[in-house]
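Researcher: Please predict.
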Amino acid sequence: MTAPTTTRTQTDKSSTLDEAIAEISSGMTIGIGGWGSRRKPMALVRALARSEVTDLTVVTYGGPDLGLLCAAGKVAKAYYGFVSLDSPPFYDPWFAHARTTGAIEVREMDEGMVKCGLEAAASRLPFLPIRAGLGSAVQDFWGSELKTVDSPYPDADGRTQTLIAMPALELDVALVHLDIADVHGNAAYTGVDPYFDDLYCGAARRRFLEVDSVVSTAELVETVPLQRMLLNRMNVDRVIHAPNGAHFTFAGDYGRDEAFQRFYATSAADPDTWRAFSERFLAVDEETYQVRVREWASEQEAQKA
């Protein structure tokens, strides 16, 4: 039998998860959009965790994205403003383990410094000055990597300000999740906290967009206010249709799966329970993952009956 051929126009950026992950190599720096346990591109993260890639540097406002990659042994170094699950138990168990055992090199910083570093990279600048971090111990966490800079413009009283010179957080690849897009990469987010994904894409050489719903450009324009259009096609290289892909974090029209997130966290407490969790949910492709999540939810409801 001859395999069906897929017809794509030059601007059709439709892609599979595997095609996107195949572009990522060991040693790369990747930026992961979203915020804590919100709007994380978890389908891409799960696919990356299943891959052979390792030794990654990750830039993130972290949540379970960083935790899962630490659990899979993919992370060598992480730049982050925080790492949180947003709700109890709040801490990500796998990131906490990697952080406290020294398994990964960390660059902790103020949240504004992450934004400043992405802005510098998106503007093709080597650094941008920022006050955040001054008067704190943040430089102690960066070794000799974080510098200061004296302003060339004296204040009115003649004194010169010394500021943090936040280095550009240049990314090889950005991974982001929005809830509706066309095949060209124009994309919108209809939920809360629609921040930073455009900066991640601006700071990256390659930009992969995971999306819950793919519609025509006409439908996208008709259904979403212009202010919700966070990405345009100039800053997107691949569009991956991944319904419910942000699970178990929340995205535009679905909430965080709090029960499953607690299950993820408690499973990490014991090698046997984590092995069972991994075999059921992480060692499988995305389609199977979604089926098994629904089965697991049904089992929880049955136990309540």
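Model: The first helix runs from residue 17 to 21.
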